Amino acid sequence: MRKRAEDVDRTRQRIVEAAVHLHGTAGPAATSIAAIAERAGVTRLTVYRHFPDETALFEACSGHWLSQQTPPQPQHWGAIEDPAERLRAGLADIYRFYRDGEQMLTLTTRDEHAVPEPIRQTRKEMTRRLVDVLAGAWPRGESDDRVRRAVIGHAAAFSTWHSLCREQGLTDGEAVEVMVTLVEAVGAES
Known about the structure:
- The protein is mostly helical.
- It has helices spanning 2-25, 33-40, 44-50, 54-67, 74-77, 83-100, 102-110, 117-135, 145-155, 158-167, 172-185.
């Protein structure tokens, strides 16, 4: 019975690893259950037995991929009181994560339409929490709060990092400084 449970766990792990590989090389939109099954060396029915719906498969895939990454650590930079320094440290950490996971993040962003809604909502919530920490050090109650938060949200977006660093050729450090300067400029004209 124990061996059977271990076999089930190993099969499940092969399926998850196959999904991670295909999502990271072809993208979620081009990844079929048949392709996952073939790569994992199982039948499509076996994939469905382990993952009865697309959301369950994506949750396992995302969890496995994230377990192999070093995600942003807001608990470290969230303690920095100076708003610009917190933003600088936070964006550097976020941009490092984007660089490390660039291939997967590029494909899953491109194929967002193929990602189940609960997974998209979880990603949005994670981004919102990062932005909350980044914006939390700035004075509140100012008329430009909404604009500053929007600019911080833009700065923290994968698409912003990709545009600045991949398309425009900035280093992560240069991109961080550009975004800090932009956020500091919000309200400076008042």
